[in-house]
Amino acid sequence: MVDLELRSVSKKYAGSEVLAVNNVSLEIEKGELLCLLGPSGCGKTTLLRMIAGFVEPTAGSILVKGQDITQLPPNKRNLGMVFQSYALFPHMTVLANVEYGLRMRRIPRTEARTRAREMLEMVGLLELEHRYPRQLSGGQQQRVALARAMVILPQVLLLDEPLSNLDAKLRQQMRIEIRRIQKEVGITSIFVTHDQEEALTLADRIVVMDKGEVRQVGSPQDVYDHPVSRFVANFIGTCNFLNGVLEALPAGSEPAVLKTDSGLRLWCKGVPGLATGQRLCVAVRPEHLELAPAAEAERESAPGVNAVRGRIEHVSHLGSIVEYHVVLPGGERLRVQQQSAQSAPSVAEGGTATVKWAVQSSMCFPE
Amino acid sequence: MEGTKRTVFWLVLPMLLEVVALFVIPLLVLFRYSFYPFVPGQGLVTGFVLKNYSKFLFDSYYLEILVRTLWLGFLVAFFALLLGYPLALFLAKSNSRFKTVLLILVVLPLLSSAVIRTYGWMILLGTNGLVNKLLLQLGLVSAPVKFMYTLRGVVVALTEVLLPFMVLTLVPVIRNIDRSLEEAALGLGASKLRTFLTVVFPLSLPGVAAGSIFVFVLAISSFVTPSLMGGPSVRVMSSLVREQAISLLNWPFAAAVSLVLLVVVTTLVALYQRALISAGKWEVPK
Amino acid sequence: MTRYRKPLTSLVGACTTSLVLLAIYLFLLAPLLVVVLMAFNTSSYMVFPPEGFTLKWFVAFFRDSMFVEALRTSAVLGVTSAAVATVIGVPAALALVRYRFRGREFLNSLFLAPILFPGVVLAIALLVYYSRLKILGSFIGLVLAHVLVIVPYVIRTVSANLYGVDEALEEASLNLGAGRWRTFFEITLPLIRSGMVSGAIFAFIMSFDELVIALFLSGARMTTLPVRIFNFLEYNSDPTIAAISTVLLCVTLLVSVFVPPRYLGF
């Protein structure tokens, strides 16, 4: 069942030339947690604020459970929102904050109290109900904000970068916490973030946005493994990019051939609709690259596997993985990541090595 | 830092000298003066008497002046808040292109002398003035309202004179209220009016308190407007001081009266501030 | 694509808001407007709409040597006081903002106290004090008194400006080998110039418009323009006063044009 639907929603701010949100259509299933992911200024927050009713769309419509709410003022929408700054009322206690939405709905005092307490218990803050927001830590404020938004039983829960004000450790904790509560209540949620790691760990589906447009929609696995464009590949996870011209189309079992700008010849996966002479960009994730001793180079460069020789410029140990920065003869730089346990002792800073990758693991984007 | 103390000393020295020589010492002298006896026809007579204070405190004529002054301060603070709050709310919240111009229009009267603005009100509020003509033409009154030399007139003019202080105190306080708090309230189902009543207004109370205290203090110590608009029939503390000091040359009594005004100003401000700070705290609903 | 119109109710609301605001602004500006209108009006009574345009009241003002003399006194007094206030106010602001020392809070409130102090109390105190020092009615006495009440404006604007200047800039200058004085003149001073100029202008306006202290301290020989107007208005009313007021208004407006809006406050 579709809980929330956006139909060709656009927003152009007065005095601005560009569309902050350009013709976005989305459907969000009941109980789903959807992440709007993109760099700052991509329109994700504007989109969320249009759903909440704080920004009026220039065009398009927003439907909740099939009912058009585009014209409804924000206070009639029954959508819960968690703000980046939490927006806890500083002059009210934790309990009064959580009760606020219930009071506005004219729910009897005793019932409101019971429900607010239940919600506070769920977020583990019942013992702090008489404190004021300023007496709470960042993580606690975050939980109160969550409780306040959820207690009104909103049709959709909107979260606007709720974790960006927390430190790294707490952020990871709260991610799990939010996911747990969201699952427990089964509430349909939209989560705005610019942190790809957050989106990958939290979301059922990710919507990648850039310059007001939706670039890709899919499961975390999907957008990570099969990005549809160079932008998505670059924004989600890290990626090595090699630019060049298509020299030969795939023939039989042989993959296509790309000649990079520095003259390197690489096998690459064909994508439909390519023509020779077209500019391409090949992308490989660092964990799909493999390092081997320099001598192996020529032997392994068969169709299906690329092997290029390079100099190891820098080695960084990142705990469980080791990252190598390899400079190719043409000047391109590649980042290679290997499990620490598997890292070859023969490849050291300053030495040469062969970088190998399977054509199947590379991605190819026309420019 | 090495030499910090010496640097600070030289930096504040000129200002310190000015304040001590022209503020602290004169006030001490004034305090001493208020205990001198006054003998008409003679200059300074040294001595120590409490007569100047007892004369003020046990004479209903003078006490009436004190009460009138406080009542004037209350009325002016009230009306300035009534008119100033909507204006400040608009200036703090609006995204209008003309906002800067509108803000300057509030400051503009401040840059002109209170004498000129009171003169403007004398023209407007005269028996044949524009305001009375309008009131008569609209049929709101049957006879001209007397504004000149009445407390009513002083309140109207003084409210206008002090209104900018109220607005300029309120604007930054309202502007500093996080906008997402209002959005949160709306999102939780509060109407615009309830959002204002439950979020914006309570959070602006410190500003309301500060602005009202400010205007109250300025009103009870104001001199120009009550003197010109009120004349001899609306006597307030400051005009009493002037009459005693300039016309009657009774400096000891003038000193005592002015010190009473000073004490009233300071204590009221302290009490009022404390009362509002405790009232501003949001109670936990029981 | 569907496009939306504003609902009618919000239009009505906007109209009501505008009307209320218009009324408040009218109230706020009416006395000044009426004075200016009066100054150019042929009739010596306030009639609306004005009967005709004339400059005769301005001529009358400039023919009156007492008023012209008072204007001159006010201008000289304002410039002198503002200059002195700036010279002693800027170092004080510098010390209060840039240094941490014992008694800083106390000095801060002491220096700003004259703003909230009842003018009449200060005026009578200075009257008594000056008569003892036998400088009652002297120009220097008036300057010193005005300096006291206008320095707070200088300290306030310069402090606001100083808080906006990153202290690290001064530290960088010291780090690069400039001494305290060079740092002050080459880094700090240029950065707080706008605050200083605004503060000085405010100080001038406040002195130029000040009435109560001048009324108590100036003798028959030397009178400021606000005092002259005040004394005149107590017993008479004449459009000449409107003309003088308009001139006074123009002076303050012209001067305040040089103040950036962010320093406009009180």
Structural overview:
The complex is a heterotrimer of chains A (367), B (286) and C (266). Helix content of chain A is 24%, strand content 34%. Chain A has 367 residues and is an alpha+beta fold. Chain A has a 6-stranded mixed β-sheet with strand order 6-7-8-3-9-10, with helices on both faces. A 5-stranded antiparallel β-sheet of chain A has the order 13-12-11-14-20. In chain A, a hairpin with a 2-residue loop joins strand 9 and strand 10. The radius of gyration of chain A is 25 Å and the shape is elongated. The mean pLDDT of chain A is 88. The longest helix of chain B has 34 residues. In chain B, helix 2 crosses helix 12 and helix 5 packs across helix 7. With 286 residues, chain B is mainly α. By secondary structure, chain C is mainly α. Chain C has 2 domains: 29 residues; 172 residues, MetI-like fold (Orthogonal Bundle), CATH 1.10.3720.10. Chain C contains 12 helices and no strands. The longest helix of chain C has 34 residues. The model of chain C has no long low-confidence stretch (mean pLDDT 86). Chains B and C meet through helix 1, helix 3, helix 4, helix 5 and helix 7 of B and helix 1, helix 3, helix 4, helix 5 and helix 6 of C.
List keywords for this structure.
heterotrimer, A: 367 residues, alpha+beta, six-stranded mixed beta sheet, five-stranded antiparallel beta sheet, 24% helix, 34% strand, C: 266 residues, mainly alpha, MetI-like fold, 2 domains, globular
Helices and strands of chain C: which structural class? Answer: mainly alpha
Question: What is the percentage of strand-forming residues of chain C?
Answer: under 5%
The total of beta strands of chain C comes to: 0
How would you state the average pLDDT of chain B, rounded?
Answer: 88
**Range of strand content of chain B:** under 5%
Greatest contact pair? Answer: B-C, 83 and 79 residues
CATH topology of the domain at 53-110 and 148-279 in chain B: MetI-like fold
